[in-house]
Amino acid sequence: xxxxxxxxxxxxxxxxxxxxSVYRPPENHQDKFFMKLNRSFRHxxxxxxxxxxxxxxxxxxxxxxxxxxxxxxxxxxxxITLKDKITLVINRIIPMEQKNK
Length: 101
Prior knowledge:
Layout: H1 6-15, H2 17-22, H3 29-45, H4 48-73, H5 82-100
């Protein structure tokens, strides 16, 4: 087997230049090329539905984990919250002011 290097390839092309310029691609060559190129891009784009499914699954798992944490795991879930405490204080103060009038 003959090893080809850059010099051998270049000399071969120079010696056979006429043989290379004879062949012309068919007229529909460009259309076929663009169709193949378009098909290859469709393979790249076809991954998008899977990415959307993964994103939706991630969001569902995230929301479910927050609900489980809030309703079952959180230690202070039975303790009164600041919002509830403020509401109780406001509800106590307002009736007292109405009684004093």
